[in-house]
Amino acid sequence: MKFGDYPKAGSFDGVSGFRSYVQSLGLDMPCDDIVSGGPNSPLGSPLDFDGMTIGHRLAVQPMEGWDCLTDGRPSENTKRRWKRFGLSGAKLIWGGEACAVRPDGRANPKQLVMAEHSQKDIAELRQIVIDAHKEVTGGEDNLIIGLQLTHSGRFCKPNDNTKFESIIAYRHPLLDKKFGYPADRPAISDERSSVWSRIS
Question: Domain residues for 188?
Answer without folding.
Answer: 39-199
